[in-house]
Amino acid sequence: MPPLALIAGPTASGKSDVAVRLALELEQCGKQSVVINADSAQVYADLQVLSARPDENEMQGIPHLLFGEWDGAHACSAADWASKAKAEIEAAHGQGIVPILVGGTGLYMRTLLDGIAPIPSIDPAIRTAVRAMSQGEAREALEQEDPDAAARLAPADNARTTRALEIVRSSGKTQLSWQANKQGGIGDSVALHPAILLPDREWLYDRCNRRFEQMLENGAVAEVEALLARNLDPALPVLRAIGVPEISGWLKGELERTQMIATGQQATRNYAKRQYTWFRRQPPEDWRRIGDMSFNIAAHFEGLFQF
């Protein structure tokens, strides 16, 4: 089967650096490679700085795909991304190029590898009715109509509670029953070579703090100003990306600068913590977890060099 490298981990863990290091080592062995983005913020053209999207210097001449691919006015779903990623992976394999998937969005990776449940569109009237409910009302309804979903979801998880209730009311089937019949995944058709980066937490959180301040110095404020000037729907993912609400609040006079920095750093750390937990628990046990960021790339990905 054709190879697929996967480098994943929380924000600020240095995933992109590792991907480029791997690509350069493959190049020294006469193998071409391409880095494919699997980060839900880095897909947006509007978030060069705030998503820490790699620049030309950081890419070091290695082709990078699906970075800045979507305009912020258009939400990129996991299915949208997986469709394009699948096409890019197939194109790379067709040319004898090793694709290196890199990112921190577990849902993207899971959708690509495992496929997606063929859940039909939600009836608009049902969506309106469900979203008009309070969290308490939605939770109570879900416990009655899809108790399995209610048992899986935290009581305060409003977004997932709403989604599960919409599905069961619109389709007559539970979310879990739909997910049991996923379609379109490529996991069984590639030779996967994964690396899950889970560095020391204190090191990671310090990187999160420093990176947010560096973003402010490198143009994050102008980036948010440009976004606000477009008058986009506030529900779009690009306007909910970490740093955008905090900087927006400061620009509108709702936060002092010190508050903006503190809340932005906290949001970044919280996100990194959630990603850390997900990548520690969710991927298969045989996906090696790596704590030492100076690990030997050639040794870990030895199988890639044999293709």
Report on the structure:
51% of the residues lie in helices and 10% in strands. The strands form 2 sheets. A 6-stranded parallel beta sheet has the order 3-2-4-1-7-8, sandwiched between helices. Strands 5-6 form a two-stranded antiparallel sheet. Helix 3 (78-94) packs across helix 4. It contains 15 helices and 8 strands. The chain has helices spanning 15-28, 56-59, 78-94, 106-114, 124-131, 135-145, 147-152, 158-171, 175-179, 201-217, 220-229, 237-240, 244-251, 257-281, 297-300; strands at 3-8, 33-37, 64-65, 98-103, 115-116, 183-184, 191-197, 289-290. With 307 residues, it is an alpha/beta fold.
Helix content: 40-55%
Structural class: alpha/beta
Largest sheet geometry: 6 strands, parallel
Strand percentage lies at: 5-15%
What's the pLDDT, averaged over the residues? Answer: 95
Helix/strand order, N-terminal first:
EHEHEHEHEHHHHHEEHHHHHEH
Q: Helical segment tally?
A: 15
Quick gist of this model?
Helix content is 51%, strand content 10%. The protein has 15 helices and 8 strands.
Give me some keywords for this one:
single chain, 307 residues, alpha/beta, 6-stranded parallel sheet, two-stranded antiparallel ribbon, 15 helices, 51% helix
Ordered list of secondary-structure elements with their pairings:
Layout: E1 3-8, H1 15-28, E2 33-37, H2 56-59, E3 64-65, H3 78-94, E4 98-103, H4 106-114, E5 115-116, H5 124-131, H6 135-145, H7 147-152, H8 158-171, H9 175-179, E6 183-184, E7 191-197, H10 201-217, H11 220-229, H12 237-240, H13 244-251, H14 257-281, E8 289-290, H15 297-300
Parallel strand pairs: 1-4, 1-7, 2-3, 2-4, 7-8
Antiparallel strand pairs: 5-6
Helix pairs in contact: 3-4, 5-8, 6-8, 10-14, 11-13, 13-14
